[in-house]
Amino acid sequence: MIKKLFTRKDFIESLKKAGDSYKIFVPVKEGDFHNFRPLDQETRPSLDFQNTRLSAKSVVYPQSERMFECITDPEAPEKGVLKEAEKDYTPRAIVGIRPCDAQSFHIVKKNFDNAEYRDPWWVRRFESTVLVGLGCSEPCPTCFCTSVGGGPFQEEFLDAILYELGDEYLVKAITPKGGDFLSKLTGGADADDASMKKAGALATGAAEKMTSTLPSDKLKDKKVNDLFKAPFWEDVAFSCINCGTCTFLCPTCWCFDIQDEVHGKQADRIRNWDTCMSPLFTLEGSGHNPREKKLQRVRQRFMHKLKYYVDKYDNGVQCSGCGRCVRYCPVNIDIRKVAGLMNEF
Ligand code: SF4
Ligand code: SF4
Q1: What is the three-class DSSP state of 88?
Q2: pLDDT in tens, 89-138
Q3: What is the pLDDT of residues 298-319, one digit of tens each?
Q4: Are 28 and 45 in contact (CB under 8 A)?
Q5: How far is the CA of 262 from the centre of ligand 2 (A)?
Q6: Smaller CB count within 10 Å for the chain: N or C?
Q7: How far does Cα 280 stand from its chain's mean position?
Q8: Please, where are the H alpha helices in the chain?
Q9: How far is the CA of 333 from the centre of ligand 1 (A)?
Q10: What's the CA gap between 280 and 246, in Å, rounded?
Q11: Quick check: CB of 331 below 6 Å from ligand 1?
């Protein structure tokens, strides 16, 4: 397996050259935040960040996606025939993804690729994507990956990983897919034992800095109806303004809505990310809404992540501990505290 050392500058240059074979996404500083953007000759990647504001989920699961299309022109021979819209499955690499966000794809995969249902677009795009992680040497106080099956340098869900060693990056392949991608990077020197030791120490030090946790050990044993009827939901939901920030930023939220749109003589069936925090999400055509109250929607978000997913997939909680919802909720609703209430109820 490839293990190489690059200077920061050489690493970025070699990524730009690899852009002929892959569509590459890198973190870019935008104002006070970082987000993933496609790499081209003008892009200025910045790997000095704690985490991106938005996760990289849209690289595999676009915020809006044309699923099907059809011609509405009454004169056209193909009028009204629904055809699959063209999709982009170009090999792609997400460089600089944090290990928690890589784990998120594996949490979400349980929904999009299981024995009952298979979403061919999500699956094919995920399979075309190489995850090149950036180990997290300074986790935020709001991060809690180690308590939900991850870790700041966890390799399990990555294809390759970067260790920041001063002015250099140690780049290590983890899977054959990661090795194929790294083989396209020119330059760099073979990593020596001293750098490998430094990388190991960095990973150990980072894990020791993680103190925040999400309690979940008793969730599986709870009865769904007991948690559903628990009295604490009133308090949990009280301050929520249903802005949807938590679900929009969350790398493990997958809900979508499907809409038909007509432009001229072309009709598109589009799927868009949606949020259970919006009353419209469950509004039925009859006007009935099974989750018309805020309490019901807030409860749904936490019950889905911390109980329904747990029971259905036996794969831990539907959360990778990235801490985004904790950091960006305008009224400080904290999933760690809610998990604590549920776990101890
Ligand atoms: S970010 Fe906070 S206020 Fe906004 S919907 Fe989520 S829990 Fe409610
Ligand atoms: S629930 Fe919150 S902490 Fe967990 S993955 Fe989603 S945004 Fe991150």
Answers
A1: coil
A2: 999 999 999 999 999 999 999 999 999 999 999 999 999 999 999 999 99
A3: 999 999 999 999 999 999 999 9
A4: yes
A5: 35
A6: N
A7: 24
A8: 8-18, 57-60, 99-112, 120-127, 176-182, 193-209, 224-228, 233-238, 245-249, 294-303, 309-313, 324-328, 335-344
A9: 7
A10: 17
A11: yes
Does residue 45 contact residue 228 with C-beta atoms inside 8 Å? no
Report which DSSP code applies to 339: H
- pLDDT tens, 216-260? 999 999 999 999 999 999 999 999 999 999 999 999 999 999 999
What tokens appear for 103 in the block? 């784990």
Q: Considering only CA atoms, which of 114, 92, 123 is closest in space to residue 23?
A: 92
Quote the CA–CA distance of 330 and 83 in Å, as a whole number: 42
What the block records as the tokens of 130 is 């190489």
Q: Is 156 helix (H, G, I), strand (E, B) or coil?
A: coil
Nearest partner of 267 among 61, 66, 62, judged by Cα: 66
* pLDDT at 19 exceeding the cut of 90: no
Beta-sheet strand order (sheet of 168-173): 33-38, 23-30, 92-97, 129-134, 160-165, 168-173, 3-7, 189-190
The Cα-based distances of 151 to 208, 267, 321 in angstroms read 10, 45, 9
pTM for the model stands at 0.95
Q: Which atom of ligand 2 is nearest to the CA of 323?
A: 3
